[in-house]
Design brief:
- This protein has three domains: 3-81, Winged helix-like DNA-binding domain superfamily/Winged helix DNA-binding domain (Arc Repressor Mutant, subunit A, Orthogonal Bundle); 82-160 and 253-285, D-Maltodextrin-Binding Protein, domain 2 (3-Layer(aba) Sandwich), CATH 3.40.190.10; 162-251 and 287-295, D-Maltodextrin-Binding Protein, domain 2 (3-Layer(aba) Sandwich).
- Helix 5 packs antiparallel against helix 10.
- It contains ten helices and eleven strands.
- The chain is of the alpha/beta class and 303 residues long.
- The protein has helices at 3-15, 18-25, 29-43, 59-82, 101-115, 128-136, 188-197, 211-221, 229-238, 264-295; strands spanning 48-51, 54-57, 90-96, 119-125, 142-146, 154-168, 183-184, 207-208, 224-228, 242-243, 250-259.
- Helix content is 49%, strand content 21%.
- The longest helix is centred in the C-terminal third of the chain and has 32 residues, at 264-295.
Length: 303
C-alpha cells in the first residue's frame, strides 16, 4: 500500500476533515483530496462519505483502516531497522509526555544504555493521544504517559500515581485564588476533581495546556498553579516556589505502554528499570505531601 496514501487516509480519519488532514500533513487541501481520490480509484471503492459536517468512513473505509495502520507500522519498523547504527543490533523507540521526558524518559535511557549495550535509542515526545497514535503506526516501542487510550496491540502497565500539588511563587499565595492563579490543563479527570474541590473559584484568567511551559511561567512571574510534586521539589528547596497551605493534592496516574510485538525480554528490562525509577519518585512525593500536611490546617487527602 502506498505509504503517502495510507498516511493521508489515516490523517483524514483522525482529523475528521480534509482541512484538518492538510494542516497536520503540511500540504494543501487539494493535495489531500487528490490522494484520497487516487486511493479510491485504486480500490474501486469510496472510503469516505462527505458532508458539510466533515467526513465519515464508509464500510469499505472501515475495512481499509486496519490495513492502513498495519502498512504504516511495517514501514516504520523497516525504516528504523535500516537506520540502526552499524555497531548496534537494534533501535528502541521511546516516547514520553513532555513533563515526563526530562527526568523519567532521560533517566530510563541512561539506565538502558548500560543494560543494553547493543541497542541504540531514539526518544520522542508528545501528548498521550499522539504517543498512542505513533505506537499504532509502529514508530514507537515504548511510551511513558498519563491516562493512555487503550488500543488493540498495546500492553499497558501502571507505574505510579503522580501527585499534583499547588505551588506559588510567593509564600503569601492562598486558595483564595486571585489573578496570580493559572489553570494547568492536566486532563478532564483533573478538571472534574479541581471543580469539585473549588466550586466557587472564579474562572482563571490564564490557562496552559503544557505543564512544562506553565511551570516556567509561574516561577518567572510569581504565579501559582498545580504541578507534579516530584517536579517542583527542587524549586521548593531553592525557595523559588512555595507549597500552598490547605490546597488538596490530586492523583494523576502514570503508565508504561509497550507494543505487543516487542520482544518479551526487552519489555521486561524496560519495565524493570521504569519501576525502579517509579519507586524513587514515590519517595520524593511522600516528602512533599508530608510537608504539605505540616503547613495545612488538616491532613490533605487525595481526590
Amino acid at each position: 500500500m502506498d505509504i503517502a496514501l495510507a498516511r493521508t487516509f489515516l490523517a483524514v480519519i483522525r482529523g475528521g476533515s480534509f482541512v484538518a488532514a492538510a494542516e497536520k500533513l503540511h500540504i494543501t487541501q487539494s493535495a489531500v483530496s487528490l490522494r484520497v481520490r487516487k486511493l479510491e480509484d485504486l480500490l474501486g471503492q469510496v472510503v469516505f462519505e462527505r458532508s458539510k459536517a466533515g467526513v465519515s468512513l464508509t464500510p469499505a473505509g472501515r475495512q481499509l483502516e486496519r490495513f492502513a495502520i498495519s502498512s504504516l507500522r511495517i514501514w516504520e519498523e523497516a525504516r528504523h531497522l535500516v537506520a540502526v547504527p552499524e555497531t548496534f543490533e537494534r533501535t528502541l523507540l521511546i516516547g514520553a509526555s513532555p513533563s515526563l521526558l526530562p527526568r523519567m524518559a532521560m533517566r530510563l535511557v541512561s539506565r538502558l544504555e548500560t543494560r543494553l549495550p547493543r541497542t541504540a535509542f531514539k526518544v520522542e515526545t508528545g501528548s498521550p493521544e499522539r504517543l498512542v497514535q505513533m505506537m499504532m503506526e509502529g514508530s514507537l516501542d515504548v511510551a511513558i504517559t498519563y491516562r493512555p487510550e487503550l488500543r488493540p496491540g498495546l500492553k499497558v502497565s501502571a507505574l505510579f500515581e503522580e501527585e499534583l500539588v499547588m505551588v506559588g511563587g510567593d509564600p503569601d499565595i492562598t486558595t483564595d485564588f486571585d489573578e496570580r492563579y493559572i489553570f494547568v490543563d492536566w486532563g478532564s479527570e483533573f478538571a472534574t476533581h479541581h471543580s469539585a474541590a473549588f466550586p466557587d473559584m472564579p474562572i482563571p484568567r490564564t490557562t496552559f495546556s503544557i505543564g512544562a511551559l506553565a511551570l516556567d511561567f509561574v516561577i518567572r512571574n510569581k504565579r501559582a498553579g498545580y504541578f507534579p510534586a516530584r517536579i517542583v521539589r527542587e524549586h521548593i528547596d531553592s525557595g523559588a516556589l512555595f507549597l500552598v497551605p490547605n490546597a488538596p493534592p490530586f492523583a494523576y496516574p502514570c503508565y508504561a505502554v509497550t507494543r505487543a510485538e516487542l520482544d518479551e525480554d526487552l519489555r521486561e528490562v524496560v519495565l524493570t528499570e521504569l519501576q525502579r525509577l517509579a519507586r524513587v519518585w514515590d519517595t520524593l512525593q511522600d516528602e512533599i505531601l508530608d510537608d504539605l500536611d505540616d503547613i495545612s490546617d488538616a491532613p490533605a487527602s487525595n481526590e
